[in-house]
Design brief:
alpha+beta; OB fold (Dihydrolipoamide Acetyltransferase, E2P); seven-stranded antiparallel beta sheet; 3 helices; about 30% helix
């Protein structure tokens, strides 16, 4: 029995030894395989998918917010001080150019006009008397020795002085008459009264800051929108646009570019565009916000690459070119995005091939097969 126990003990020891040897052999085989695989991987050449730079000039669409404003809008003030005598229009009334809106009264202005008119008539009579006296002396001077030359010159000077006084008096009367016309408030253009701020009996004129009326032209509107700086070079005179307003969903309106500011706004770096919109049918109203679609095109071709080939790093924006087995990192500035393409500006050529999936781990320099 003791011998059997010894035999079993030896068998167990042999089994353990065999197991340990097998595990060690397996580990060595795996390590050897991994090293061989690593060596095989290191030896495999690196391949980067590329695409050529495109030098094109495509049309593209953008959507920007805009605002519809009255083509003309004005605050109507009284140029002279007076009390409101009569009002002929109210808020919402449509008026024609030259239509009488209100009448002011200023008695002292009427008295001034009458005084100036009376003075003008007196000065005119003096002028006529001086003129007749001079003409008589001219007739008398035709007889030799009848009139001294000094007397003739004195009469001529008196007539000219009276004529100057009469001209000045006429100007004063015209001034008073013009001020009387300012008591009649008339519409400067065809439009609608949007506000009426006074009532009969109220004091109006230069001493108050409140306008009598607010007027706007609704038959024609201005569609204004700020175009971002990067699109400013794509604007062309006469370009068309379509727009929608939230008050009429699903309906599209057309407009033609009428004018631009010509300079970028220093606050938001945008170019203001204006489109004239015919609104005789009254479908639109000033003050609406609009969503405007523009079809733009650069004035000259530019370089475009696949959007995924642009590398955004902490040090800047780049693309990686692969030409003649050499990788270069080219700093760029992005422009317009169109579907899968991105416009880029930098030291590029249409002959360049760009790595489609760049990363900061890819180093510049030559690559080997």
């Amino acid at each position: 029995m003791y011998q059997s126990f010894l035999k079993n003990k030896k068998s167990v020891a042999s089994a353990l030894l065999a197991t340990m040897l097998a595990l060690a052999f397996t580990a060595c085989s795996q390590n050897g395989g991994e090293k061989a695989q690593e060596q095989h991987t290191e030896a495999k050449p690196v391949a980067y998918p590329t695409a050529s730079v495109q030098y094109i000039n495509p049309e593209y669409e953008i959507s920007v917010p805009g605002e519809l404003k009255p083509y003309e809008q004005v605050s109507v003030y009284a140029k002279v001080t007076g009390f409101v005598k009569q009002l002929y229009v109210d808020r919402g009334d449509r008026v024609r150019k030259g239509q009488l809106l209100a009448v002011l009264e200023a008695p002292e202005m009427e008295q001034q006009y009458l005084s100036d008119k009376s003075t003008e008539q007196k000065v005119y009579s003096d002028y006529l008397y001086a003129k007749q006296a001079y003409e008589r002396l001219v007739d008398a001077s035709k007889t030799t020795g009848a009139v001294a030359d000094i007397e003739l010159d004195r009469a001529k000077t008196a007539m000219e002085s009276a004529k100057s006084a009469y001209d000045a008096s006429q100007a004063g009367t015209a001034h008073s008459s013009q001020l009387r016309q300012y008591l009649r408030i008339i519409a400067p253009f065809d439009g609608v009264i949007t506000q009426r701020n006074v009532s009969v009996g109220a004091l109006a004129g230069t001493g108050t800051n409140t306008p009598l009326f607010m007027m706007a032209q609704g038959s024609k509107l201005r569609l204004t929108l700020p175009l971002p700086e990067k699109h400013a070079f794509s604007v062309k005179q006469g370009m068309s646009a379509t727009f929608t307003v939230s008050s009429q969903p699903g309906k599209t309106f057309d407009a033609i570019l009428s004018r631009t500011s010509g300079l970028l706004d220093q606050q938001d770096r945008s170019l203001t565009l204006e489109f004239d919109v015919d609104n005789h049918a009254g479908e639109l109203q000033g003050g609406d916000y609009a969503q405007v679609k523009l079809t733009l095109q650069r004035r000259a071709p530019s370089h475009w690459v696949q959007g995924k080939s642009v590398l955004h790093a902490q040090s800047g924006t780049y693309i990686l070119t692969l030409n003649d087995k050499e990788i270069k990192r080219i700093p760029i500035k992005e422009g317009i995005r169109l579907d899968t393409l991105t416009e880029v500006f930098g030291n590029l050529s249409p002959k360049d091939d760009v790595i489609l999936k760049p990363s900061e781990e890819i180093k510049e320099g030559s690559i080997t097969e």
